[in-house]
Every structure is written in C-alpha cells, then in structure tokens.
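Preliminary data (for renewal application), iron/sulfur cluster complex.
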Amino acid sequence: MKIAIASGKGGTGKTTIATNLALSLADTGIHVQLLDCDVEEPNCHIFLKPEIEKSEPVTVAIPEVIEEKCTGCGVCADVCEFSAIAVVKEKVLIFPELCHSCGACTLFCPEGAFREVPREIGRIEEGKADGIDFVQGLLNIGELMSPAVIGAVKRAGGEPDVLIIDSPPGTSCPVIEAVKDADFVLLVTEPTPFGLNDLELAVGMVRELGIPFAVAVNRSDVGNEDVREYCRREQIEIALEIPDDRRIAEAYSRGEMVVRALPEYGKVFEDSWHRIVDLRNHATRTGQPLGQTATEG
Ligand code: SF4
Ligand code: SF4
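Predicted structure:
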C-alpha cells in the first residue's frame, strides 16, 4: 500500500500527519517506509531525527557543445522549449538551471555537436528512525528541477508493507510526480476559506489522476463548516480529524512526535489507517475511486 499525503497549500499539517501516521503504524509492527518528497523544504527529519546511513548525489543530463562541430546554425535554440539555449554570434550559450534534460537539442542538432554531461541538482539521503525506513530528497538551492529529485527518492523506496509519501504542497508538476503512482492520497486541509479553496484544487488534481482519496482535517474544531459541507456534497470521505489541541502545537514547536508526546493520539492515527484501508479496498473491489462524484464515476 502506497499512500501519498498531500495538500493544496503548505502549512496545513501535512508533515505532522505523514510522520505520525508512519510512526503509529511502525509501533504496531508494520514495516513502514517514509519518503520525504517535499524536496525544496524537507522537514520530516526534524521530527523523526533519523540516523542517515547513505547519501548520494542526484544528477541530470545536460547538453555540452562540441565546439569544433558546431556551425552556429541556431537550430538548438529554436527547439529548446525552456529557453535554456541561446545562440549569439554563432556561439552557443547554455543556461543549465533552465535545462529540463529533454534531449531535444541533441536530437535535432544537424551536426551532432552535443554531448550530454551529468550535473548535480540535489541529494537523496537514506536512514532509519524509530523503526521506520526513511528516505529524503534535498534539492540544491536555486535549482528548479525538483521532479528529478522526487523521482530519485521514489526509486530509492523499497517494498515495505506501507510506503508513505510526504508530497510537496500545491498542485503543480512536483506534486504530480510525488503522488502519480500512489494507491491512495490523503488530502490534508484546514476548515477555513483558504483551506477549502486549496482543497478544491487538490481534489481536482487527484480526480484527474483517478487515484482514490480521502480528506484529513487538521485543527478540525476551528474555522467553519464549509470544508465538511463541501466533502458531503462531493461524496468525499473524511478519514482523519485532528483537533486544535494546544499540546500538539507545543510538541511541534519542540520538534517532538505527537504520538510520542501524547500517546492517546496513536489510536487516532491507527483508526484513520483502518478507514483508509477500507476506502482503498472498496475502490479496488468496485473499480470506483471513492471521492469521485456519481456523475464523474
Ligand atoms: S544546433 Fe548544433 S550546430 Fe547548430 S548551433 Fe546548435 S549546437 Fe551548433
Ligand atoms: S536538453 Fe532540452 S531543455 Fe535542455 S537545453 Fe536541450 S532542448 Fe533545452
């Protein structure tokens, strides 16, 4: 079972839920692996405090000009969709940070004047934390190619009983890369107008991907009822609710795991896990991803 924890915006409690769900399952003897795919700002490690055993660079292939073959024709600049090449006075300029490693310039150069060279854009780190196998990705500052690092983190994943992916916030390319092959997505939100707006965007994304999903409402006893009404209207299950408990905020500010500081929350996460498994099984049995409305289903 591969479950992605996602949210339409940052700061909703996504990492709190990913790490505490992982730990509460590991505490029951389940083999859990947690992949921190929020590679621009990975922070699962702050709470899990893993012992890192392995660290490897992540590289992408970028073009390099073979000067003696280049005629300065400009074809490469024309085919590059990402403005990563300019040809000025028959001299080729490459902007590595903009290159998406699509290979089009190498393919279309009439003179065969490119070779591909590796460029480091980040790292992946692997280790263990409190019975959890842990992998995180770190994108180098100023780099744009987070999907490449996310892909590397996912390739480093093994075959545990449960694989939990802490995805980046939002609904753009990095999130799609993180959640696209998940068996289930848990969308974390808060019961506020902003929370609802971003939830609607995230729901649109997972419906487009056709992945079964449910919602987790953090600080569930503040704000208003709009998120619940939206979920009712759209036939979306709420699999987890975490109240606005000051003790959780205090544990968070100390970098502590909620299920360690407040053991009674272990059962809350375990119960939500059973609910998620039921929802996933229902979707598999019926071929109807829950959360899809009747008309879309
Ligand atoms: S397409 Fe090839 S030959 Fe033409 S400018 Fe680019 S590198 Fe040089
Ligand atoms: S590999 Fe693709 S993105 Fe990179 S410079 Fe060539 S055409 Fe542009």
